[in-house]
Specification:
280 residues; alpha/beta; TIM Barrel; 5-stranded parallel beta sheet; 4-stranded mixed beta sheet; 11 helices; 13 strands; globular; Chitooligosaccharide deacetylase; NODB_dom; PgdA-like; Glyco_hydro/deAcase_b/a-brl
Protein backbone atom coordinates (compact mmCIF):
# COMPACT_ATOMS: atom_id res chain seq x y z
CA UNK A 1 0.00 0.00 0.00
CA UNK A 2 1.48 3.41 -0.93
CA UNK A 3 2.77 5.48 1.97
CA UNK A 4 4.08 9.00 1.59
CA UNK A 5 5.52 10.85 4.56
CA UNK A 6 6.00 14.54 5.25
CA UNK A 7 8.44 15.54 7.99
CA UNK A 8 8.14 19.06 9.36
CA UNK A 9 11.45 20.02 10.94
CA UNK A 10 12.44 23.23 12.68
CA UNK A 11 15.94 24.56 13.30
CA UNK A 12 15.37 26.67 16.42
CA UNK A 13 18.57 28.72 16.13
CA UNK A 14 17.32 32.12 17.37
CA UNK A 15 20.40 34.41 17.59
CA UNK A 16 23.01 31.61 17.53
CA UNK A 17 23.35 31.48 13.74
CA UNK A 18 24.03 35.20 13.59
CA UNK A 19 26.57 34.99 16.43
CA UNK A 20 28.36 32.14 14.63
CA UNK A 21 28.86 34.53 11.69
CA UNK A 22 30.22 37.25 13.98
CA UNK A 23 26.96 39.22 13.90
CA UNK A 24 26.58 40.05 17.59
CA UNK A 25 25.31 43.64 17.49
CA UNK A 26 21.79 44.36 18.81
CA UNK A 27 19.86 44.26 15.53
CA UNK A 28 20.89 40.76 14.30
CA UNK A 29 20.50 39.44 17.84
CA UNK A 30 16.95 40.82 17.97
CA UNK A 31 16.27 39.36 14.52
CA UNK A 32 17.12 35.95 15.91
CA UNK A 33 15.13 36.52 19.09
CA UNK A 34 11.99 36.80 16.98
CA UNK A 35 12.37 33.04 16.63
CA UNK A 36 10.93 32.62 20.13
CA UNK A 37 7.79 34.47 19.00
CA UNK A 38 7.69 32.39 15.83
CA UNK A 39 8.14 29.13 17.74
CA UNK A 40 5.05 29.86 19.81
CA UNK A 41 2.99 30.48 16.68
CA UNK A 42 4.28 27.28 15.07
CA UNK A 43 3.55 25.16 18.12
CA UNK A 44 0.01 26.54 18.25
CA UNK A 45 -0.52 25.62 14.58
CA UNK A 46 0.93 22.12 14.94
CA UNK A 47 -1.15 21.54 18.04
CA UNK A 48 -4.32 22.57 16.19
CA UNK A 49 -3.56 19.97 13.50
CA UNK A 50 -2.37 17.21 15.86
CA UNK A 51 1.03 17.03 14.13
CA UNK A 52 4.29 15.95 15.76
CA UNK A 53 7.49 17.44 14.36
CA UNK A 54 11.26 17.46 14.88
CA UNK A 55 13.11 20.42 16.39
CA UNK A 56 16.90 20.86 16.22
CA UNK A 57 18.18 23.24 18.88
CA UNK A 58 21.76 24.36 19.63
CA UNK A 59 22.81 23.91 23.24
CA UNK A 60 23.30 27.65 23.71
CA UNK A 61 19.65 28.17 22.74
CA UNK A 62 18.43 25.44 25.12
CA UNK A 63 20.31 27.12 27.94
CA UNK A 64 19.02 30.59 26.97
CA UNK A 65 15.34 29.71 26.43
CA UNK A 66 14.59 26.60 28.52
CA UNK A 67 10.88 27.43 28.83
CA UNK A 68 10.44 27.63 25.05
CA UNK A 69 12.24 24.29 24.66
CA UNK A 70 10.16 22.71 27.40
CA UNK A 71 7.07 23.71 25.42
CA UNK A 72 8.45 21.83 22.40
CA UNK A 73 8.72 18.67 24.49
CA UNK A 74 5.32 19.23 26.12
CA UNK A 75 3.77 19.26 22.65
CA UNK A 76 5.12 15.77 21.94
CA UNK A 77 7.76 16.94 19.48
CA UNK A 78 11.23 15.50 18.99
CA UNK A 79 14.22 17.46 20.33
CA UNK A 80 17.29 16.83 18.17
CA UNK A 81 20.99 17.69 18.43
CA UNK A 82 22.03 20.83 16.52
CA UNK A 83 25.45 21.49 18.00
CA UNK A 84 26.36 23.50 21.08
CA UNK A 85 27.09 26.68 19.13
CA UNK A 86 25.90 27.18 15.57
CA UNK A 87 29.47 27.05 14.23
CA UNK A 88 29.61 24.31 11.55
CA UNK A 89 31.64 21.24 12.56
CA UNK A 90 33.82 21.63 9.47
CA UNK A 91 35.05 24.94 10.94
CA UNK A 92 35.99 23.48 14.35
CA UNK A 93 39.14 21.76 15.53
CA UNK A 94 38.82 18.08 16.44
CA UNK A 95 39.06 18.88 20.15
CA UNK A 96 36.50 21.65 20.06
CA UNK A 97 34.07 19.68 17.92
CA UNK A 98 34.14 16.75 20.36
CA UNK A 99 33.75 19.06 23.37
CA UNK A 100 30.84 20.97 21.85
CA UNK A 101 29.11 17.79 20.68
CA UNK A 102 29.15 16.26 24.16
CA UNK A 103 28.13 19.51 25.80
CA UNK A 104 25.05 19.75 23.59
CA UNK A 105 24.09 16.14 24.36
CA UNK A 106 24.14 16.97 28.07
CA UNK A 107 21.93 20.04 27.55
CA UNK A 108 19.35 17.88 25.80
CA UNK A 109 19.60 15.20 28.47
CA UNK A 110 19.10 17.70 31.31
CA UNK A 111 16.00 19.12 29.62
CA UNK A 112 14.37 15.95 28.32
CA UNK A 113 15.77 13.20 30.52
CA UNK A 114 17.33 11.36 27.57
CA UNK A 115 19.90 11.78 24.85
CA UNK A 116 18.94 12.80 21.30
CA UNK A 117 17.89 10.25 18.69
CA UNK A 118 19.15 12.38 15.82
CA UNK A 119 21.67 14.98 14.77
CA UNK A 120 21.56 17.85 12.29
CA UNK A 121 24.75 19.85 11.75
CA UNK A 122 24.66 23.64 11.85
CA UNK A 123 24.62 24.96 8.27
CA UNK A 124 24.59 21.32 7.06
CA UNK A 125 28.37 21.06 6.91
CA UNK A 126 29.96 17.99 8.53
CA UNK A 127 33.62 17.40 9.26
CA UNK A 128 35.27 14.06 8.53
CA UNK A 129 34.92 13.34 12.27
CA UNK A 130 31.28 14.22 12.82
CA UNK A 131 29.57 10.93 12.01
CA UNK A 132 31.92 9.15 14.40
CA UNK A 133 30.75 11.47 17.19
CA UNK A 134 27.11 10.95 16.20
CA UNK A 135 27.55 7.18 16.53
CA UNK A 136 29.65 7.44 19.69
CA UNK A 137 26.90 9.37 21.47
CA UNK A 138 24.21 6.87 20.54
CA UNK A 139 22.28 8.79 17.90
CA UNK A 140 20.33 6.63 15.46
CA UNK A 141 20.17 9.02 12.52
CA UNK A 142 21.70 12.08 10.91
CA UNK A 143 19.89 14.71 8.84
CA UNK A 144 22.65 16.81 7.26
CA UNK A 145 23.25 15.28 3.81
CA UNK A 146 21.58 15.33 0.44
CA UNK A 147 22.25 12.03 -1.36
CA UNK A 148 18.56 11.44 -2.16
CA UNK A 149 15.42 13.53 -2.17
CA UNK A 150 12.79 11.14 -0.83
CA UNK A 151 14.53 7.97 0.43
CA UNK A 152 16.62 7.55 3.59
CA UNK A 153 19.85 5.57 3.31
CA UNK A 154 22.69 4.34 5.50
CA UNK A 155 25.39 6.99 5.81
CA UNK A 156 29.00 6.36 4.79
CA UNK A 157 32.10 7.69 6.48
CA UNK A 158 35.72 7.79 5.41
CA UNK A 159 35.19 8.68 1.74
CA UNK A 160 38.38 9.79 0.01
CA UNK A 161 37.65 12.80 -2.19
CA UNK A 162 40.02 14.69 -4.47
CA UNK A 163 39.30 17.04 -7.33
CA UNK A 164 41.58 15.13 -9.70
CA UNK A 165 40.72 11.50 -8.83
CA UNK A 166 37.67 9.24 -8.73
CA UNK A 167 35.75 9.17 -5.47
CA UNK A 168 36.76 6.30 -3.18
CA UNK A 169 33.77 5.25 -1.10
CA UNK A 170 34.18 4.79 2.64
CA UNK A 171 32.47 2.29 4.92
CA UNK A 172 28.71 2.04 5.34
CA UNK A 173 27.56 2.67 8.90
CA UNK A 174 24.44 1.73 10.85
CA UNK A 175 23.50 5.41 10.95
CA UNK A 176 20.37 6.24 8.95
CA UNK A 177 20.67 9.38 6.85
CA UNK A 178 17.34 11.21 6.60
CA UNK A 179 18.20 13.53 3.70
CA UNK A 180 17.44 17.22 3.37
CA UNK A 181 17.67 19.84 0.63
CA UNK A 182 18.24 23.57 0.44
CA UNK A 183 15.27 23.72 -1.95
CA UNK A 184 12.95 22.50 0.85
CA UNK A 185 14.45 24.94 3.41
CA UNK A 186 12.76 28.27 4.11
CA UNK A 187 15.99 30.18 4.74
CA UNK A 188 17.41 30.58 1.19
CA UNK A 189 13.98 31.45 -0.18
CA UNK A 190 12.99 34.07 2.35
CA UNK A 191 15.88 35.56 4.31
CA UNK A 192 17.61 38.77 3.28
CA UNK A 193 21.31 38.97 4.23
CA UNK A 194 23.84 41.72 3.76
CA UNK A 195 27.36 40.81 4.87
CA UNK A 196 30.37 42.79 3.71
CA UNK A 197 29.95 43.39 0.00
CA UNK A 198 27.66 40.39 -0.54
CA UNK A 199 23.86 40.49 -0.59
CA UNK A 200 21.57 37.43 -0.42
CA UNK A 201 18.20 38.79 -1.53
CA UNK A 202 15.71 36.21 -0.23
CA UNK A 203 12.21 37.62 0.37
CA UNK A 204 10.57 35.34 -2.22
CA UNK A 205 6.84 35.23 -2.80
CA UNK A 206 5.48 32.66 -0.36
CA UNK A 207 2.87 31.25 -2.74
CA UNK A 208 5.54 30.55 -5.37
CA UNK A 209 7.62 28.64 -2.82
CA UNK A 210 4.52 26.77 -1.68
CA UNK A 211 3.94 25.68 -5.28
CA UNK A 212 7.44 24.20 -5.48
CA UNK A 213 7.04 22.35 -2.21
CA UNK A 214 3.68 20.86 -3.13
CA UNK A 215 5.06 19.79 -6.53
CA UNK A 216 7.95 17.93 -4.89
CA UNK A 217 5.47 15.97 -2.79
CA UNK A 218 3.32 15.23 -5.84
CA UNK A 219 6.36 13.95 -7.76
CA UNK A 220 7.24 11.67 -4.84
CA UNK A 221 3.68 10.31 -4.84
CA UNK A 222 3.90 9.51 -8.55
CA UNK A 223 7.37 7.99 -8.50
CA UNK A 224 7.54 5.97 -5.25
CA UNK A 225 5.44 3.49 -3.30
CA UNK A 226 7.10 4.55 -0.03
CA UNK A 227 8.85 7.87 0.34
CA UNK A 228 9.45 10.84 2.59
CA UNK A 229 10.24 14.53 2.26
CA UNK A 230 11.85 16.68 4.93
CA UNK A 231 10.75 20.30 5.03
CA UNK A 232 13.09 22.52 7.06
CA UNK A 233 11.98 25.73 8.73
CA UNK A 234 13.53 28.33 11.03
CA UNK A 235 11.05 29.91 13.46
CA UNK A 236 12.48 33.40 12.99
CA UNK A 237 11.90 32.96 9.22
CA UNK A 238 8.64 31.03 8.87
CA UNK A 239 7.12 32.74 11.92
CA UNK A 240 6.33 35.96 10.00
CA UNK A 241 2.64 36.41 9.28
CA UNK A 242 2.41 35.73 5.54
CA UNK A 243 4.76 32.76 5.88
CA UNK A 244 2.71 31.30 8.73
CA UNK A 245 -0.26 31.38 6.37
CA UNK A 246 1.89 29.56 3.80
CA UNK A 247 2.86 26.92 6.39
CA UNK A 248 -0.80 26.42 7.25
CA UNK A 249 -1.65 26.01 3.56
CA UNK A 250 1.23 23.54 3.13
CA UNK A 251 0.08 21.38 6.02
CA UNK A 252 -3.53 21.34 4.87
CA UNK A 253 -2.69 20.67 1.20
CA UNK A 254 -0.34 17.83 2.09
CA UNK A 255 -3.01 16.36 4.35
CA UNK A 256 -5.51 16.35 1.49
CA UNK A 257 -2.88 14.64 -0.68
CA UNK A 258 -2.65 11.79 1.82
CA UNK A 259 0.55 12.78 3.60
CA UNK A 260 1.44 10.99 6.81
CA UNK A 261 3.19 13.41 9.20
CA UNK A 262 6.03 11.81 11.17
CA UNK A 263 9.08 12.91 13.13
CA UNK A 264 12.48 12.10 11.66
CA UNK A 265 13.05 9.58 14.45
CA UNK A 266 9.85 7.79 13.43
CA UNK A 267 11.04 7.81 9.81
CA UNK A 268 14.40 6.23 10.63
CA UNK A 269 12.62 3.54 12.66
CA UNK A 270 10.26 2.77 9.80
CA UNK A 271 13.15 2.71 7.34
CA UNK A 272 15.06 0.20 9.47
CA UNK A 273 12.02 -2.07 9.46
CA UNK A 274 11.98 -2.00 5.67
CA UNK A 275 15.65 -2.65 4.87
CA UNK A 276 18.78 -4.13 6.38
CA UNK A 277 22.12 -2.26 6.67
CA UNK A 278 24.07 -2.31 3.42
CA UNK A 279 21.01 -2.59 1.15
CA UNK A 280 20.97 1.11 0.23
Amino acid sequence: MPRHIACLSFDFDTWSGFAARGMTTPTPVSRGEFGVVGAGRILDLLGSRGIRSSWYVPGVVIETYPEACERILAGGHELGHHGWSHVPPADLSAEREAEEFGRAVESIRRLSGQGPAGYRSPAWDLSERTLGLVLEHGCRYDSSMMGHDCQPYFARRGDRVAADAPLVFGEATDLVEVPISWSLDDHPHFEFFRSGGAVTPGLANADAVLGNWIADFEYMRRSTEWGMLVYTFHPYVIGRGHRMLMLEKLIDRLGRMGAVFLTLDQVQQEFRERVAPGQT
